[in-house]
Amino acid sequence: MIWEALGSAAIGLALALAATRRFPERLPDRRLVLATGPVAALVGGLITRIVLGSGHLPVALCVALGVSTALLSLLLRDAPERRQWRRDTLRTTPAPRSAPFAPEAGLRRQAPARPSASYGPR
User: Fold this and answer.
1) 67 CB neighbour count, 10 Å cutoff
2) Which of 16, 44, 57, 103 is the least crowded, having the fewest Cβ atoms under 10 Å away?
3) Can you tell me the distance from the alpha carbon of 89 to that of 15, in angstroms, rounded to the nearest whole number?
4) How far apart are CA 102 and CA 99, in angstroms?
5) What is the pLDDT along the chain (122 residues), one digit of tens a residue?
6) Can you tell which superkingdom this protein's organism belongs to (predicted)?
7) For 27-97, where are the alpha helices, taking DSSP H only?
8) Are 85 and 106 in contact (CB under 8 A)?
């Protein structure tokens, strides 16, 4: 069991180090990331050991990697250059008043949301 725990922690730490090197501007404080990776991997390895029992080291390490990746991905933020509002160039003429639901000038139109099942039968 000690080898599973050490292996899981090592995998989580390696993944956290790789994430801090790859996405330094998109992650919060480095200490938080370096703590989250190994702890998440240990939790994933522990859950796998409880569910499957002993003797499944490769599976436990794969699950530890997956849980660590999932929790580290929750720490990611948008890149600083993508945080600004996306605006088209402003129109020189105002929108006509005859359209009751005219979009604001300069804002891009978004694709309609996917309809949910609450609209009734098709």
Assistant:
1) 22
2) 103
3) 42
4) 5
5) 888 999 999 999 999 999 999 999 899 999 999 999 999 999 999 999 999 988 899 999 999 999 999 999 999 987 666 655 544 444 455 555 655 555 555 555 566 666 555 555 55
6) Bacteria
7) 30-52, 57-73
8) no
Cβ neighbors of 102 (< 8 A, separation 6 or more) are 95, 96
Place of tokens 């801090």: 20
Q: Which residues contact 110 (CB under 8 A, 6 or more apart)?
A: none
Q: Is the dihedral of CA 70, 76, 77, 82 positive or negative?
A: negative
pTM, rounded to two decimals: 0.63
